[in-house]
Amino acid sequence: MSETTASAASASLTPAAAASVPSAGVAAPGAGGDATLTARGRRAMVALRAVQVLLALFFGLASALPKLIAHPSAVEVFDTIGWGGAGMYAIGVLELAGAVALLVPVLQSLAATALSALMVGAFAVQVTVFAGENAATPVVLIVPLLLIAWVRRRHTAELVRWVQRRS
């Protein structure tokens, strides 16, 4: 039975019978605080967290580290772009900060948004400077980053409230 069918079916059942029908995965809005996830919803959140960890590892180790240690391949790329060492280190620091922030709950949505913006820039550089040679890589990375930013957006609201209380 699909989730839509299950929700429609549960509306026509008695409360006791409706409790046994699977729902869409979260409690009704305003049902008392945090939404309670079903097993399927918990698995989805665990999977999303795993994607966050993998992206953090990618941005921290495979992307930022070569820039921060001035690996010859990174130096060559940034010299070709015309940004030199300063641009290479700046992008490396931004990627490393984003990788770390992806692992901090209150920063994860903001980090995913910032890394997405960085990937838009990487895509533009790939298309304009390198004739689209590796243009698919930033596009592929943007998809899970935007998913993380959307699903974890509640954390951005928490961060804004925290900053407002501190000022």
Helix content: over 70%
End-to-end distance, in Å?
51 Å
Instruction: Specify the overall morphology.
Output: globular
> How many helices?
8
Mean pLDDT: 84
**Global structural class:** mainly alpha
Number of structural units classed as domains: 1
Which runs of at least 5 residues are low in confidence (pLDDT < 50)? Answer: 1-34
Question: Radius of gyration, Cα only, in angstroms?
Answer: 21 Å
Major sheet, described briefly? none
Give me the count of strands.
Answer: 0
- The H-and-E topology, N to C, reads as HHHHHHHH
Beta-strand share of residues: under 5%
Subcellular location: Membrane
Membrane topology: Multi-pass membrane protein
Main location: membrane
Pfam families: DoxX_2 (PF13564)
Give a concise summary.
With 167 residues, the protein is mainly alpha-helical. It has helices at 3-11, 15-18, 39-68, 72-81, 84-101, 108-128, 136-151, 153-166. It is built from eight helices and no strands.
